[in-house]
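Fill in residues.
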């Protein structure tokens, strides 16, 4: 079975929300119900020398994650020369239903080009990849020809 039929991709930080800045970014809250794991993929753009940047994953039982708590061990430090780098946080069997990516930016500008989460290991497959900011096409053994 195709990967796109066994996962759901959600954009949690848009390029607009991740524009160069020094303020923290709270990603879109992700409802993991019906999935066994969530893999966050964060791509950084330009990071100014001296920037203090990090990311972590938080969880909560409330749909707005007002009860957000950091997940132990998920903090990753982003160096000021990590321009264009990708950071992955894979959470298997989260203990609470709602997750959120949190990016801390301070002292100098750091750009988050975008961040997505892939929800995987669905209870029911195939899944539907419905999202306002993600478009998915799926092909099985496509013939050669005009794309």
């Amino acid at each position: 079975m195709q990967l796109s039929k066994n996962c759901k991709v959600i954009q949690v930080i848009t390029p607009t929300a991740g524009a160069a800045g020094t303020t923290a970014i709270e990603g879109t809250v992700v409802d993991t119900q019906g999935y066994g794991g969530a893999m966050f993929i964060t791509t950084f753009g330009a990071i100014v020398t001296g920037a203090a940047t990090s990311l972590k994953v938080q969880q909560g039982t409330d749909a707005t994650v007002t009860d957000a708590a950091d997940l132990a061990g998920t903090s990753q430090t982003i160096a000021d020369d990590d321009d264009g780098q990708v950071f992955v946080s894979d959470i298997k069997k989260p203990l609470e239903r709602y997750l959120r990516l949190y990016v801390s930016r301070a002292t100098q500008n750091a750009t988050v080009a975008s961040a997505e989460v892939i929800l995987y290991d669905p209870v029911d497959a195939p899944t539907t990849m419905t999202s306002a900011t993600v478009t998915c096409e799926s092909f099985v053994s496509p013939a050669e020809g005009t794309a």
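The chain has one domain: 3-122.
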